[in-house]
Specification:
This protein is of the alpha+beta class. It is built from 4 helices and 10 strands, in the order ββββαββββββααα. The radius of gyration is 23 Å and the shape is elongated.
Length: 219
Amino acid sequence: MRRGDGPSSRSLRVDGSNEANVMVSHEPGDAASDVLVDETLINVAALLQEEVGSRRLYGIRLGRMALADDIVSTRLAGQVTLTRLRGQILASFQLAGAAEMECVRCLRLYEEAVETSFAEPFRQSVDVKSGAEIRSSDQFDPEEDDFFEISENHEIDVREAIRQNILLALPMRPDCGETCPGPDTGALNAANGLDADDTTASSGTFAALSALLDERDGS
């Protein structure tokens, strides 16, 4: 796409069969977009030498990424806009995809759709031209400001920013939906040393649990 073109919809293939349409907005002065495929490291040396307000746009395609010990994101696609500010680069994200989670009702894995937009600052720590360390100025308070750092090689790794914000966008109480089959009585009985085929032993427990979950849903 040429510099200065208007908004466009780019189709990013995120697996063998599915495609995600991502709106990439170009304005005068924007550099052409590259696409990060299962990669989260971006060299910003050139951007750091440009005027404040300069920008770069990158498409993002991440197949699978661990978010936590038991949560994995899948087919993440979107874009990140890097904006040069004084002493830092602001990374603004638009992402959509899914996460593999365990349903709290049936304890089975399912895919939870996720879509989120967020921005994170990356603070410059080394001067690009001289290589000298840049000390925190009055605009940064390490005790209060929450930011990532640009590495000594003038690179930013957006993986941790993506991981944290995707986790924040996921439900606190994962539920696979209206088609959820409910608790696995056989597994629960086996865990409690009961007959796996005995549905009467745990029916009262499940009834109480179901009522409690429904009550929470309604609150």
